[in-house]
């Protein structure tokens, strides 16, 4: 098999849309949960593992086109930190200093410490950054030169996740166990992209919709609670890389901003206005979040990405962080 890691020139039609859909799902779930104490909806897709799968694909592409760890680290830092720092400052302005410190704690510990009054969405960023480091180590070891090594890692990670999900422990550890299988799924889809791209542009979206409805389809359980995360990871990446481009114009990548900004805004609205009308609250949040995320993209994130591309590597699709 030719070395697929060298194939970094392909442009993919729908990753911005996929990441936006995942971010919207996260915002809807968190908003609903903040207003309804009896909220209990698992969502269509497990968003954080799905984001890790997208990163597993796009960040491997980024590393392959960069060729060096320092340049790769610089590019990732310029993608992650501008909006992250802005989200911390937003929490301080809208809420208070305690919220800022608690949010830092959640981010640094990857959610191991989750104090109240915090931007709880930041827990996933530490694990995403760890995944980047793992990718760099695997690259240095030559693991991506033969996909069999990544298949073995996926198998081991999946078995571990399956075992973890059978234990009566915190759901937090169940979610953590989904991340590695999802990330390696994204890696493998990059390595085998040539074959997947030959299957057409309609089937990936059909499969994505079916997987979104998985909860409502009586499919026998295979691999415990772990299997849906791997299948969802595959569906999300396949739709992003090979699915027909549903929106003809390029859309701004608002997904990361929406992800890191929505919790401070939700808490501020709930504390300030004490809403009784969930629809009105959702409308206000939508307008505020989209406006702020758009401003963040054009004034903060996109200018930072220009600095990333000046590092000497060809521009690539940036991976959204979950």
TrEMBL record:
MF (Gene Ontology): acyltransferase activity
This protein's UniProt keywords: Acyltransferase, Membrane, Transferase, Transmembrane, Transmembrane helix
Keyword Ion transport: no
Listed EC numbers: 2.3.-.-
Keyword Acyltransferase: yes
Pfam families tied to this protein: Acyl_transf_3 (PF01757)
Transmembrane segments: 41-60, 80-101, 121-141, 148-165, 171-190, 202-223, 229-247, 254-273, 279-300
Every Acyltransferase domain range: 13-295
Protein name: Acyltransferase
Species lineage: Bacteria, Pseudomonadati, Pseudomonadota, Gammaproteobacteria, Pseudomonadales
